[in-house]
Specification:
alpha+beta, five-stranded antiparallel β-sheet, three-stranded antiparallel β-sheet, 13 helices
């Protein structure tokens, strides 16, 4: 059983073939992100080995995007309808997230989403088992939503190859399928060989849940898009041009940095005995074949006047700036940040485009994280001894790693309270209850 067999079996028709094509593209995107896919062909007819220098700006920018959005883990608070925090609910949720190293998995899941177009937020657990929170990359799952609601899953299949055996009988593939039937979620999990025969497991289990404990998060895309878009794909052209120009620059420097010696009317034996060293003397003899025409041998240095520094730097900076602008990541240096570190408003202005881009992504990530919080408490109610009702509100606070003018804002709010334009309750809600 191959990847194509799994997709063909579970996903029929045009959508199945589209998924197969998309998975092949995603493999190439991950290779490009890692740097392996940034190689290029060079001519073999040259009398030298061309330089190949790869500066992986693509990987750097993707990490900066993920770090900016989730470098500070968003705070998720559970409140009742009147706005009061629910300590029991919050403690249970925090315990599950802490046990699963949620902060680390969240930022890595964001990277996978930016590279592979989508990511699956997966919850696991059972009676007597702890609740698990995972993010699975797009190369490890295929899914099928309900026709009338793309956010609700009808079916999702996770899989990965367990070995590299060439024989179909020795090949081992782990496959796990969640599927809705009669308003119940059923789980089928097993290990299969390359012929699709079940080697271990394979029984269908009623999970006891009325929903599939997974949610697919799509990166960008349009209405009804089930595949998403990759940020890596946007950078590929500029990244390839950047690497090749930089490599060509090294070759140009290598061949033009050494001056060439030019001998005119010199005898070959004197050139063969010439020593190039500090303070050395050259015994230059005129070629006897010149006869008595009065010509004397001469030796000079021919230095290259090739100059392109300004144009090269302009092109390289333009490519780099284009990559930053495509993702909305500011291209800042330490010199540009001098004098701005004391002002949170100035820093926000510099990062405003990236903040806007992150807020756009929050329109997808915030509902997914709210779903996760509710689903964890539902699973704790089904599989545990405690019961958590569904009558609560989930608040998600977006936190960005930007210096805030917090003290000045507090002072301004206190002045508003003293002036009577802000109530003490609203001040406590903002600065005390929020913490």
């Amino acid at each position: 059983m191959s990847l194509s067999d799994i997709v063909s079996t579970e996903m029929e028709g045009l959508y199945g073939s589209k998924v197969l094509e998309d998975l092949g593209q995603i493999i190439a995107l991950y290779d490009f992100y890692d740097g392996r896919g940034q190689d290029w062909e060079t001519s073999r007819e040259l009398d030298y080995t061309p330089s190949k220098v790869k500066t992986n700006l693509c990987k750097k920018l993707i990490k900066r995007e993920a770090r900016f959005m989730f470098g500070r883990t968003p705070e998720m608070k559970l409140r009742d309808r009147e706005g009061n925090i629910l300590p029991k609910f919050t403690q249970a949720l925090d315990r599950v997230l802490e046990d699963n190293s949620f902060s680390e998995r969240l930022i890595k899941g964001m990277r996978d989403c930016l590279i592979g177009k989508r990511v699956a937020l997966k919850l696991t657990g059972g009676i007597g088992e702890p609740i698990g929170v995972q993010f699975r990359p797009s190369l490890e799952f295929v899914f099928e939503p309900f026709d009338d609601d793309v956010d609700r899953l009808r079916k999702i299949i996770f899989f990965y190859r367990m070995n590299d055996a060439k024989s179909a009988n020795e090949t081992r593939i782990w496959k796990q399928k969640y599927e809705m039937s009669h308003n119940r979620c059923f789980l089928t999990e097993g290990i299969y060989n390359g012929k699709g025969e079940c080697i271990e497991g394979g029984e269908c289990i009623n999970t006891g849940l009325d929903f599939i404990p997974c949610r697919v998060i799509i990166n960008d895309g349009l209405t009804g898009d089930l595949t998403g878009e990759s940020d890596v794909e946007e950078l590929m052209g500029d990244q390839n041009a950047y690497n090749r120009l930089k490599s060509d620059d090294l070759d140009a420097l290598r061949f033009n940095m050494f001056p060439q010696r030019v001998a005119v009317d010199a005898d070959g034996s004197s050139l063969e005995n010439m020593v190039i060293a500090p303070g050395s003397l050259v015994d230059l003899v005129t070629d006897p074949a010149r006869g008595d025409d009065g010509q004397q041998a001469s030796l000079s240095m021919l230095e290259s006047k090739f100059g392109y520094d300004a144009r090269f730097e302009h092109t390289m900076n333009r490519l780099k700036q284009d990559m930053h602008e495509l993702l909305g990541v500011p291209n800042l240096s330490l010199e540009q940040l001098q004098g701005l570190a004391q002002s949170g408003k100035s820093m926000k202005a510099l990062y405003w485009e990236l903040i806007e881009r992150s807020e756009e992504r929050w329109t997808v990530w915030e509902p997914a994280l709210k779903w996760m919080c509710r689903s964890i408490l539902k699973m704790l109610s089904v599989y545990g001894e405690e019961h958590y009702d569904d009558d609560f509100v989930v608040a998600v606070e977006h936190l960005y790693p930007i210096f805030e003018d917090e003290e000045q804002e507090r002072e301004l709010d206190l002045r508003e309270v003293a002036a009577g334009v802000r109530t003490p309750e609203s001040y406590r809600e903002k600065w005390i209850n929020a913490n």
